[in-house]
Amino acid sequence: MMVEQNKKIFKWQLRVDGSSNTHGSGAGVVLTTPEGDSIECALRFDFKATNNQAEYEALIAGLKISTVLGADEVEIFSDSQVVVNQVLDEYQAREESMITYLELARELLERFKEYRIVHVPREENEKADALAKLASATINIWPNNISMIRLLRSSIVKTKEVGAVFGERNSWITPIKEYLVNDILPSDPLEAKRLKYKATRYSVLNGELYKRGYSRALQRCVGPEEAEGILRSIHSGNCGNHAGGASLAHKTLRQGFYWPTLFADSKRVAARCEACQKIANNIRQPPELLQSITSPWLFAMWGIDLIGPMPTATGGAKHAIVAVDYFTKWVEAEPLVHITETNTISFVKKNILYRFGIPNTIITDNGTQFDGRKFRELCDKYGINNYYASPAHPQTNGQTEAVNKIIKHNLKAKLATKKGSWADKLPQVLWAYRTTERGSTGETPYSMAYGAEAVIPVETSFSSPRVQLFQPEINIDMLKCGLDELEEKRARTNKECGVPTEGSQILQLACA
């Protein structure tokens, strides 16, 4: 009679397996119903996990799915000898994380009327093993018949419940929104600090998360499912022009939408468009050597002008030479004792060429210091286009003229009656100009040039948040976050691109 009881056939059968490697970690779950139907699910972890932890995550996810689907008795098969024997109390769990996993697994097992857990060889657990390897692999394309779910955090991490819609549970939006709305942070101190820095560019308005962008003032943050619809609408909707991947991504940004994998997703949508494939031009040219792809030319156009004469400063300086970059509005200036071609050439080399690289264009007036033989030879030597403003229309170099007015105004405000110390105050004026928002760009020249705001004295005197919370390793990460596309490139470098959730809602709810 005891033999017959041990050979009882359970109505539900659950096969689980976990996998962890250098690329990532994941789990595979195969649940067979009493009717013989098979539910297959792969889980990718957005956190680091050892092989034993991945095995426990697979077991816990499988038990949650079984509970949601109404299983009352289940037979569990796992190829992890450690997990099976710890659950059966034959092995002792010593590590704190293993103890916590074991307690959670036993808590879930108590929900069943009856269960049996069995250790099986890997070759008898092929389906779950294949799903686990698929989830931990570095690929972003998944079979349509397999549910893929992303787990943002470990099952043993305690978090507060958030009243968010179901679609945001496994979304990249959730951690940022949880912090901004409910002040919830990850349990990992390092991840918590990273989230705090990242959240400074986000805000919540009317329940929606927005990111402060460069192409638009505010860009609405969207999840994976909504992102797919936005891209297809812009690409092939009523106003779609079947643009390529890069054009599609930039148009999406201009329309006011954002998510971290925008550029990668845009390329994928454009590449898989059937209409684009049918009407694509056939390349009939023979293969040739690869050609370099052009990249942006930073600090490509400078305007240069003179200020003066001004009161004689220390050292006899009566003039100042000023250069401004037309895109970032970055300004370089230097006091001059004599206006000569040699001094002008020295200024261009030291403050432009050696600091910002070779520009494409320099715009000046018709002064002899800019129109001399040596200055022309300098421009010819480095391939710089030297354009001159017409004497009848000096506004053709109006950018520099406008900057000159600002510098002179700020110098007057700082000097009061001590007019002769203007040369000593010039660096302070330049610093103030570079860290003040310009109306034409909506950004400070410092931010336009370096992708982040400079730390000014008031922040160190009154301890601003970024001074108080400064950490060198976090700062290195944040320096990489500049423009919209750079944030996505950083995500692709440090971590695999996020995988759009394709699992059914009931499976996601079980593993959430």
Helices, strands, pairings?
Blueprint: H1 2-6, E1 12-20, E2 25-32, E3 38-45, H2 51-68, E4 73-78, H3 81-87, H4 96-109, E5 114-119, H5 126-135, E6 147-151, H6 173-182, H7 189-199, E7 202-205, E8 208-211, E9 219-221, H8 224-236, H9 245-254, E10 257-258, H10 262-271, H11 274-279, E11 301-307, E12 319-325, E13 331-336, H12 341-356, E14 361-364, H13 368-371, H14 373-382, E15 385-388, H15 398-415, H16 422-434, H17 445-450, H18 457-461, H19 465-468, H20 472-479, H21 484-494, H22 505-511
Parallel strand pairs: 1-4, 3-6, 4-5, 9-10, 11-14, 14-15
Antiparallel strand pairs: 1-2, 2-3, 7-8, 8-9, 11-12, 12-13
Overall description:
Residues 292-453 form the Integrase catalytic domain. Residues 8-137 form the RNase H type-1 domain. GO terms for molecular function: nucleic acid binding; RNA-DNA hybrid ribonuclease activity. The chain is an alpha/beta fold and 512 residues long. The two termini are 42 Å apart. Helix 6 (173-182) packs across helix 7. It has 22 helices and 15 strands. It has a 6-stranded mixed β-sheet with strand order 5-4-1-2-3-6. The radius of gyration is 32 Å and the shape is elongated.
